[in-house]
Amino acid sequence: MKEPKIGVYICHCGGNISDTVDVAKVKESIAKLGGVKIVQTYEYMCSKPGQDMIQRDIKEHGLNRVVVASCSPRMHLDTFRGAVKGAGVDFRGAQKRAALNPYLLEMANIREQCSWVHDDKELATEKATALIHGAVERVNYNEPLEPKAMPVNRDVAVVGGGIAGILASIELADKGYKVYLIERNPSIGGHMAQLSKTFPTLDCSACILTPKMVYVSQHPNVEIIDMAEPIAINGSPGNYELTVRIRPRYVDKEKCTSCGECARVCPVKKFTRHEEGLLQDKCIYLPFKQAVPNAYVIEKDLCLWFNKGVCRVCEKFCKGKAIVFDQKEETRELNVGAIISCTGYQQLDPSLSKEIFEGWNVFSQYGFGLHPDVVTNLQFERLMLQGIHRPSNGKPPKKVAFVLCVGSRMDHGIQYCCKIGCMNAIKHSLLLLKAVPDAEPWIFYTDIRAHGKGYEEFYSNARDHNVKFIRGRVAEVVPNGDNLIVRTEDTILSKQIEETFDLVVLSPALLPNTGTGELSKMLGIDLGPDGFFLERHHKLRPVDTKREGMYLAGCALGPKDIRETTIETMATASKVATFLGRGEVSVSPEIAYIIPEKCNACGECIKYCPTKAIESITSGVVINPISCTGCGICVPKCPTDAIDLKHSTDAQLMAQIQGTCEEDGDRPRIIAFLEKITAYGSADLAGQTRVSYTPNVKIIAVPSTGRVGLKHVLHAFASGADGVILIEGDDSPFRGEQVREHVNTLKKELGKFGVESLRVVSTTTTLPEFDKVVNLFQTFDERMSKMGRILPEKRQKIAEALTGGK
Ligand code: FAD
Q: Could you give the 3-state DSSP secondary structure of residue 501?
């Protein structure tokens, strides 16, 4: 190894760090460390002058290692890797001198995991110093690595055929990519297919949507796979294998002419989903007139043939011989380079509030499900299309109450805004006035949110048309003969309101679509605290996920209107085209490797590899570099230390542990090994939310907690730690029973060195569960304070045992 010449760059982050961390003091301490050639501080290290400073120093001081102490690597690792890599390149791309390999950079997270979670300047400064010290020790052992290039598959899977999925498919298909559009319903179209007219322009929804449905269905580069859902995934970015389950329609789409004869003769009636349960259809039905594919489908659960073995009358009357009762469920494997989730939303069912609000039935007072003239706004869309009428008596309603924020923006319940409720109620009021000129629309609102283009004008137009706006949450809706009484307080005039209406229209909260949780687990991408898919970065990567090659669009990310959905979808399609357009993806070099002279081919590692990347061949054991995901679980399992993990080698990890633990003070020291994607991200989220916790906990990112073996934990205790926390991401292949088993073995082994098992604790977490992570930090710190620090003699003994007395 070349003699290290390390440059350390400490960012103020415009006060985000320097308001809490004494940057000058940290600089002074770090400058004394061995191998450190230069330490610089700067207001914004990620800015051009900051990056230029690093590049200049690499050239002028001949630096061969760099540590940047700033925000989370989740935010700017790529930025700083780019900076060190570009150090030898001039503006024309010509090589001035050898650039620094990006793997010779380390980052210390002194913002999300330090300045944003601690208030005490002295303690935050000590902690920042320890974290940077750890990074400096580690970078000594970093080695240059090169990612491998792999060709990508240019096909794309789009999951969800609402307006977002349709537009994403068209955009990519027009650019020449082959798209599989996977929709679980019998027709594409999503919620937009149910809408009458759309705010703020009041143009008809079908006129905008249906031509796109036809276009996408006829596009030579698009294959629509309807009645289908993804159920499994394998592979890696650029080369995914997606397994899709296709439910039987019991009608041959190619033969069905949608003449409707089958439905005419079918004896079984059912309420339709498209009409939001307001109209009945037959058990063999066309989802809606403009459905794509335009073919009938049989509802198996209600069909007499499937349930009682009688009937088949549809089959007898079908001239095209399109009925296929023995159609079976199928699965299909799709090889794709990228996947877009456009799975949209569902509405809160106001009558199901019990389940959602843990036993507190907040909506029973709105009478939904008890009185036919209390409907949802989606039902109102259908009523408008059917010819506006009261469900109870078929007569046009005159006085209509629109009740906003049903379930949204509540402390106990769904805190976020549905984003479409206000404009939609205004739209419905104007449409009602057009249909029934002497109608009286009343809108009961919390705040009117008119944030989009043309929305304020739309709102003002409604006021000009004498739509009544009452500020106040509706307390109750009480049936009164044929009518409904709405009670509330007008919070502007501070007076009680009790008015009688013909129809009450509720605007329920919008929720993540059913199955969103399962899909996120299967694809290995995160959900946010609201249950919608989580973007990679709120501002800079709003349609990316944490996994390369997986993207998001539309209401899958959260409630939004059609315009915002469209804009987002265009951005997503562009990201996918850029990703696949390069023709190749770089595969991370951070993978496990065998040290042949130590390997006795016992095959122990093979048992633990979650991706089956290790196999035994006649000459020994080999690791497939493409299948290896670099989790490192195999490394501590090797009885002869014959496996190591690139960029998370034993040498790097041991050095970082040592540096992070070395610190003055009598407080207990806790090292928390966090799986680097989800668990580490969860700790970052605690920082972003400014939830504070004890500065005694210092986090070290690891590929998985399975990478942390007995020697690492012992080394932490020998180096000054009093407790060790291991936190695994809930979506990691190494979780549940495996983590428990691993930690129990660690605890047992620690006993042999006189370390109490209570000094190690572990858990798993999802990304939004940062409260759980923070609680564990706090309670474990209290436990360590009670147990007291490990005595120096014991540390000495552990250190001697680790080095074999050398
Ligand atoms: P969706 O329309 O929900 O489509 C998602 C699709 O994904 C569905 O077809 C679903 O079946 C499918 N899917 C889900 N999970 C899976 C899976 N696992 N596998 C396969 N397929 C799956 N916006 C406006 O701009 N103007 C308006 O006037 C307006 N009016 C509205 C009125 C009401 C009452 C409501 C509730 C919303 C209104 N909106 C309006 C908002 C509009 O509905 C949304 O912006 C738009 O529908 C979002 O489209 P999407 O494709 O993201 O989601």
A: strand
